[in-house]
Design a protein that fits this description.
single chain; alpha/beta; 28 helices; globular; fatty acid metabolism; ClpP/crotonase-like_dom_sf
Amino acid sequence: MSALAAPNEVVTRALLRQVNVPGLDRPAALITLDNGFDHTKPNSFGPGGLTSLDEAITAALAANPAFVAVTGKPYVFCVGADITSLPQLADREQALEIGRLGHRVFARLKDSEVPTFAFVNGAAMGGGLELALHCHYRTLSGGVAALALPEVFLGLVPGWGGTQLLPNLIGIPAATQVIIQNPLMQNKMLKPKQAAEMGIADVLLEPADFLERSLEWAAGVVRGEVTVTRPEVDKDMWAGVLYFARQTLDQRLHGAVPAAYKALDLLETAKDADFATGTAAEDEALADLVFSEELRSGLYAFDLAQRRAKRPAGAPDKGLARPVTKVGIVGAGLMASQLALLFARRLQVPVVMTDLDQARVDKGVGYVHTQIEKAVSKGRMDKGTAAKLYGLVSGSVDKGVFADADFVIEAVFEDLAVKKQVWAELEKIVKPEAVLATNTSSLSITAMAEELEHPERVVGFHFFNPVAVLPLLEIVRGERTDDATLATAFAVGKQLKKSSVLVSDAPAFVVNRLLTRFLGTVFAAVDAGTPLDVANSALDPLGLPMRPLALLQLVGPAVAYHVGGTLHAAFPDRFGVSENLKRIADSGQPIVVDDQINDEVAKLLVVGDQPLTAEQVRQNALDALAQEIRLMLDEGVVAEAQDIDLCMILGAGWPFHLGGITPYLDRTGTSERVTGQRFLPHGAASLPA
């Protein structure tokens, strides 16, 4: 074990106690995983934790128990391997050893002659879920908030038996969904009911008395009063499912995520190989991936999302924040309505919308009510909460309703003159200390506030669509925004459960500026004569969440053209204006239909006679991103490159295997070739030099 020493490991102890269960002639052995911290620091396994579990299993079996059960501390079962220790592994042999250690310890539960149970009381992810899969039986709490095998999301594979046990328990279609599809869908979690229906759990129990009911249920199994039946796994479809999955990966990722392909190979092995052969293959795959650049980028991205996002760089002292007891929203369109629902749900304070006429106001409030009704019908909200939200959200054509609001946000047409007019009118109505927030995607906060009596209370509060899904919030400080306003904005962002990044008042801020430069480069290639399909597929090797033209359609050609115009005015040497994009915007036609380029849109284009190859388009786009990021850092738009990456991950959905974008630009040599320097030091999101 000395080779696996992890000096920084927070050891998860396996605490053993004997439990007398009614109806059994001898005690049961209950092993509780607990690292000594509350639920904000979940249990995980490093070498020390695995050793503790091994010792607890030995002691449990020595006592000749009626059964052995493993559970977790409150709200947490176990979230898997201690991934922070992976970069400390010195060589491939150490990676193999950590894989083999986990397999050896967990297999003791699988191979035990004494019945073994997992009482999954809380978050169970990665190696934690794999531990549960090794047990003969599993109970699951209906209150579990996180249930997944997320390894592919980070650049790994389930390496402690998951790829071999899960498909042979629930079948290959469902296992492929859990191991590959869900991680690639922004790390989608399983709901407890869904996991039980799949067969991952044998019984779903209420959280209030979960442990007591689990012990009773386990005793019933041991006494033979409860029979667990599991459907036979259909192996005839195995090859077909994996063939389709591989085709899907090729179409979406084009080889960009090695872990996903490794996971497919392991799932293929699970069909016929014995367990020892399959787990040995997991060890080899794990050892390969631990020393990949994609994993290092994934771990870097994970750290950004888990740590930096919770402690925003440059945010003022939270003690300066003012209380917010009422929110006003200027506008009642789709974005404004989404904001109204979000503020009401998270802040639990009155939210009032205004618009130009009663019909628009009614439509906005109606949207909120419809969304609440949908949440209730799908079981995502109880009727009591729904009734409260109905009462919190209201609308009016009279802006006088904002007089007692503490926080007012506008979501009106993206035009500086319109927004300035809104604030000039509102400043005469709202309280002197009320925060005035704008959801502008590209306009200057400073210019918007310059004619106000109190410009210091205006702040950018830029959400990303869909508001309920994307976690990023760009908080923009104008030249005269004061610390109290900024602190209040960050406090509200935290209440909204958004990850806030402090951004200076620069055109289009971070995400929109980079995506506009990126799309502008691709469209410049189209303008030059590059076929649409070539330009659209040129970035495929990066494995981005969507191709450029699909992204353009999501943003909206008219919006993209407008933002591009704003940036062209600010930086005419780097941001061009594409007349072809204007033609598409004016046409109102979709540029992509059923993942295919619309031929009618293609006919609108007027192009040159200097087409580029896909490789040239890709390199131009990467070069442009590298140049723009360096300029943004030099301008102080954000504190560090890490904030750029955090914004691209959380606001644009760019994948973890890229680390956002700067680690990829570093490891491909683009950063140094274009700017003369790396964005990050060697080893920060890559293998050491």
